[in-house]
Amino acid sequence: MLQTVDPLFPIGSYAHSYGLEEMVAMGLVTTTDELAKYLTNIVSLNLSQFELPYLRFTYESQSKEDWRAAVGLDQEIGASKLSAEIRTASATQGQQRLQLLGKLRPCPAFEMLATLRENKEMTPHHITVFAAERIQQSTPLNAILASWTYQALAAPCSAALKIMRVGQEGAQLVLTQALDTLPEIVNDSLMVERDWAGAFNPLLDIASDRHERAYARLFIS
Known about the structure:
The structure is a single chain. α8 (141-163) runs antiparallel to α9 (168-179). The chain is globular. By secondary structure, it is mainly α. 70% of the residues lie in helices and 0% in strands. The mean pLDDT is 91.
């Protein structure tokens, strides 16, 4: 798990800001305090209400080898990402992770995901592949949710170094504050039932749509 959540793991995470670049361009996130609010109000909400619940759902379905349910969940994950940029980023990272894992630690589950992809039944998205990987490594559910949360909180802090007036120390201070809320985010996500899973973030969707048409940009999304 430590190896594959490391920024050095080549799935292209470094090339994405997940909407932050355009938020900075719009003047909405320009200071460390505003970056901290961005993590709390947008990233954490999306994690607790959408990403972590769906990670749990697909973890449970794949653990039972219920691939029909896993396919349905993967389709819902894609449909819930309204911005084409964010949807493509999720698909690309999922496929890159799957391709590399198939070489590093081949197993029947990865082969199944690859087959479903070839048959155009599943994308699969990053969450789906992450769940399959964690199952194969017998990672406990809480550790799975915590590691995904860490990735999601650390990525904007890393991106901020390139597009904001924030130094390494400032980024680490913001990340430390955000990580203090990690147990709460995970616990909140465990309370979300399937019918109620989802997060409405119009500001992030608008920022992502604007980013697609930006004259100049540093990140893919």
